[in-house]
Design goal:
Two copies of one chain form a homodimer. Chain A is mainly alpha-helical and 321 residues long. Chain A is 74% helix and 1% strand. The first copy, chain A, has 17 helices and two strands.
Chain lengths: 321, 321
Amino acid sequence: MNAVTFLSPVTEEIKLVEERMRAQADESHPDLRAALEHLLAAGGKRIRPTLGLLVGNMLGAPLDKLVTLGAAVELLHTATLVHDDLIDGALLRRGMATLNARWSPPATVLTGDYLFARAAILAAETDHLPLMKLFSETLAIIVNGELTQMFTSRGLISRDNYYKRIYAKTASLFEMTSRAAAMVSPSDDATIESMRDFGYQIGVAFQIVDDILDFTGDQASVGKPLGSDLHNGLATLPSIYYAEANPNDPDILSLPNGGWTNNDNMTRLVDNIRASDATKKAMLEAEQHIDRALVILDPMEPCAERDALENLAKYIVNRKV
Amino acid sequence: MNAVTFLSPVTEEIKLVEERMRAQADESHPDLRAALEHLLAAGGKRIRPTLGLLVGNMLGAPLDKLVTLGAAVELLHTATLVHDDLIDGALLRRGMATLNARWSPPATVLTGDYLFARAAILAAETDHLPLMKLFSETLAIIVNGELTQMFTSRGLISRDNYYKRIYAKTASLFEMTSRAAAMVSPSDDATIESMRDFGYQIGVAFQIVDDILDFTGDQASVGKPLGSDLHNGLATLPSIYYAEANPNDPDILSLPNGGWTNNDNMTRLVDNIRASDATKKAMLEAEQHIDRALVILDPMEPCAERDALENLAKYIVNRKV
């Protein structure tokens, strides 16, 4: 399973999305254009626009709206990453220098703001008011989630808290993309709701796998030290499973009291989690979400896009980065 | 001329705008709600929502849309101030502690982002797609203006540059507010265009007066040291008039070469500008914009709102803070 198997039906269309994104800096300052070029070059597999294009094409949505939606979603995603990297002081993302590694914090704040503005312009250019509302509400969910995470005490081990966090952080935008693509197609409400749920399920799985890769991934390709979440006091699903199986582990017990600030203890805890079956249990949970997503596709008419969406869903739990 | 004479027709409606703004934090984290309360308490004369309400009421727009528009515009304005204060490292605004004086930079970045998101939601709640587009485009103009200012070399004395800057910084939002209020009313295109121009003219005048007050204002109520723009290498209209009259002043000549970083020289230059007729010339220019705004009101039917708009326009050049 690789990216090619789900990208192939929309390879050309993704190029249109990228052109559309690039055009957002056309009237802006040359330095800002250069920054956007840099961000686009650093830019991943475009999973979100691919999801929107596949769902929309499957349901007969007009291509121009899907390209606009894809560019809006990916630009919104990029804007949140720009501010996130600034907040975290991250210097690398996907092996490339972050904007704040090259620019001053003020320029980075404003570049993120500019990308938010251009994403909102693109969303408005779909000429679809409910989509526009959904788009701004999703931005509010993402940012409120980040603020809540910032204000929540570190070291908290809570499944409820974890699910809320990954919804805000990741699943909400997948959900919005898939739902919006259906909304601009001639689909009935039941189909729109199915596609919303499809986006939600693969979005949740995507973030769970990200959190597993934080423990098991190849350090170079993840671009962060192993167990970086735990070192920052964030208990993700593997830690939660480990804590359930080992409630008296002293490192686990220390977490809510600031134990996560002790580097040696956290390195030991990361090793123990890696050696346990916690990441396997977390992966089973991610796979359950993918199974639910695949069930949603069952009643859809067979077509190249449905096959690609299946492959996209399966890729999410099989990816290595 | 005081604020009462233009506020009186909409005093009750401004309260609705403030309630609407306050409600934007209802579902968010308690700390974020407290931050929004703080920002609202610190919040000025609500000139932008007042402008929208007066224009809209005069033209028969529905009140609910004007309240929504007013809250969207004021929240957008607040969001830009939150990021501005962070970027400038400002600790006080209107005599009250800024958010970044009390919060960490990450929390301040995210609070600004959240306010952008809520402003976009409000704009979408007007259910008016062209308004929504205008709203996002105005945000892009404001942010691109700030970025351009950041990338432009300091000490530049250019009238063209100055007018572009104050359009992006201030006039664009006044223009958008006045135009949008007309757009949601049953007005024809010519009236909408008149109201756009009205907002533009008073917005330009507003910023020119702000820039004059930076030289002549009461330091305590302006909340910044006198001539703070020049000390930051920004030549505003009084400096431009002074430079035109005194092209060989050594402090003026030093500006493009970094002379603005010399505190003693800039203090002397500020004194010289204050002693000259440069601020008077700048005020005449602001008054010309107000005169143009008043001419636009001439053909409108006499009514309380038209009178209040006249008073608002006159207040802008007579205010002391």
